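Attaching the record inline, Q. Sequence:
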Amino acid sequence: MTMKRSSLLALLLAVGVPARAVIVDGIAAVVNDDIVTLSEVYEMGSAYIEQRCPAGKDECVSGAEKEVLDSLIDRALMRQELTRLELAVSAEDVDRAVDQIARDNNMEDRGVFRQAVEGQGVSWSDYREQLTDQLREMKFNESVLRPRVAITDDEIKDRYRRSVSDIGQPDQLELAAVGLKVPAEPEARDAALAEAEALVASLNAGEGDWDTLVAERDVLGRGGKMGRLTLAEMSPAIAEAVKDLPEHQVAAPVALGDVLLLVRVDARVSASVLPLEQVEGRLREAIFQEKLQEERARWNEQARRRSAVRVLLD
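Structure, as predicted:
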């Protein structure tokens, strides 16, 4: 799967792979009173720049540097907003997060966890800085962006309807079945088939009682149930009989050996579709995350307009 450029950038910035070459430092941007240096661009985005520009062409590298710089400017604005709201992430916040991660990974204490991190070739200071950035994002999302996101029940219902529509036709049928014993004699078989067809007509007309038929005549021993099956999982004869059958109708008798099978379609469902009540939480979260990203982009734009941002990267 091809990763979108913005997603790749976010991933590589989150990883924070250090630059492979020595960067001559300089001021890349000034965000209010904060300075973003060129070395910061490469400390956070070297992997992304290298992947974007494997040939190292100046025009490509310059464009990739500016993309990384844009992300760092947005981070600086977010950090400044948290400070203004007195929600800055403290060293104690980071310590608590480290301790929780250690416990979640069944490690005795922070020291053992630190050894594991450094064993992966990541410096402890770099790891703590990455964790600090993650905590800032969490605080910012919760305190600044979440109050700006509203989701209505109609939006959830619309998303559910569209997701069901995209899936297409149902691919599973909930079936009930009664097996009627067929005599061996040809004349008796013809009479049994005629009787079975009459039973089907009676059931579909609402005159017969399915449960009584199951109790008195069924030879399958399944309590009148076949379960949920795809057409591919059924015998060809049964699949042909029920593939276009409406719900709650009984198909024409199907001969299987010495049994005449009366099959009823109780429901048509998709293996991929669950009732709205079971997926509402996931749909709400998906819509929330989409709106959160939209609000973040809107907030970034507004923050830049009301801030003094100077880009000095050539």
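The domain at 172-269 is CATH 3.10.50.40 (Chitinase A; domain 3). The radius of gyration is 33 Å.

More tomorrow.
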